[in-house]
Write a structure and sequence with these properties.
Helices cover 25% and strands 28% of the residues. Helix 5 packs across helix 6.
């Protein structure tokens, strides 16, 4: 019955809701009496250089947890099983890993992963023996390369779960070679817009019970824009929200796994370069730094040399070049260290890349590091 209702739903006459409109008029989307929903603030990761804030209510958090749990069950994970998380970042000097007893999780600090620390990461995983290893694709790929270079055999989990970045074909091949287990990926947003996850046959399934998803034709044949309408977040419902992500549509044949969710072949445009530091560390995610920089509209980090980055900023009129800039530099220094030069430049706009999105990070040393590693 639910599937039939979805098929009959047509919102195409309604306007598209953009992230810029939410940044400019977000409060107008709040529900009347929004405090009764016990909302919390969520924020996009800012991978396009311009994070957006949203309100999410308690019920949407419960629905989100249930959907993630469903997806994990596809991997053979059961609630309470051990899993390891190689997606988080911590400042230099903080522990490389930490236990989350509430979730039975081992959190590994991806921002401190390097050739010098790979032994400790590998030993800790072997001791913990997680059922599932969740990771950013770029972090896991470098982990694999350094394992090989150091002659280390990795712990074999039941499944690998990647997220937040595009999983390139050579990444996936490397994961299969070293871990010899099922490789799954999922696509989701902090604003609870939609959830896609891969099954054992590699197809991305659209979780229709999470939100209503429209695949709107793009200028490039075979591709579509992801437009969603949230159905569980009553404190700030989004109608025809433009995620700015693209997908390869693929065919419409039934998936061999037997699940009846509609499918897409691939999620496009979620890859960023990595920043390499002079001391051999790398960073693939900077949302922790820019999360509270309210006076910056958009950001782009450009690295041409290992010892220098240029931070391009599109500031708001309220931006204070003395206090806000000092605060931003202090945050960047805390993560990247003192051996790298940081320059700032100010712009009225930033240029989009080939996918139409503005890449958050452009790093020549990062690309060279990945290319230099043997296949």
């Amino acid at each position: 019955r639910f599937a039939n209702m979805i098929e009959r739903l047509d919102l195409s006459e309604l306007p598209i809701l953009t992230k810029q409109q939410i940044r400019d008029h977000g409060r107008e989307l709040w529900a009347d009496g929004h405090a009764a929903y016990k909302p919390s603030v969520a924020q996009t990761s800012g991978t396009t250089g311009s994070p957006t804030k949203f309100l999410v209510d308690r019920q949407s958090n419960i629905t989100h947890f249930a959907a993630i749990w469903t997806m994990l069950n596809w991997l053979g994970y059961r609630f309470g099983d051990r899993f390891a998380d190689l997606t988080g970042g911590q400042r230099p000097g903080e522990p490389l890993y930490a236990r989350d007893l509430r979730l039975n999780c081992l959190r590994l600090c991806s921002s401190q992963l390097s050739q010098d620390t790979v032994h400790r990461f590998a030993q800790r995983l072997e001791r913990f023996q997680p059922v599932v290893l969740k990771a950013l694709p770029s972090s896991l790929y470098l982990f694999c390369r350094w394992l090989e270079e150091c002659g280390l055999d990795p712990y074999q989990p039941r499944a690998i779960l990647t997220c937040a970045e595009t999983v390139h074909d050579h990444y996936r091949a490397k994961f299969r070679k070293l871990f010899d287990c099922a490789i799954h990926d999922f696509y989701n947003q902090n604003e609870r817009a939609c959830l896609f996850s891969t099954c054992e046959h590699g197809r991305y399934h659209i979780h229709e019970d999470y939100s209503y998803v429209e695949l709107v034709d793009d200028a490039t044949p075979g591709r579509a824009q992801v437009v969603t309408t949230t159905t569980n977040n009553f404190v700030m419902p989004l109608i025809r929200y433009q995620t700015n992500d693209l997908v390869e549509v693929g065919d419409d044949t039934a998936c061999p796994c037997g699940r009846t969710y509609p499918t897409v072949a691939r999620v496009i445009g979620r890859a960023d370069d990595i920043v390499v530091t002079p001391d051999g560390r790398f960073h693939s995610s900077f949302e922790y730094i820019f999360e509270h920089m309210e006076h910056i509209r958009m950001t782009q980090i450009v690295q041409d040399d290992v010892d220098h980055i240029d931070v391009r900023l599109v500031p708001t009129p309220a931006f204070d070049r003395r206090t806000d800039l000092r605060r931003l530099e202090d945050e960047l220094r805390a993560w990247l260290g003192d051996d790298i030069n940081i320059g700032f430049s100010f712009h009225t706009a930033l240029q989009p890349g080939r996918t139409g999105k503005i890449p958050f990070v452009i790093s020549r040393p990062g690309r060279e590091l990945l290319k230099a590693l043997p296949a």
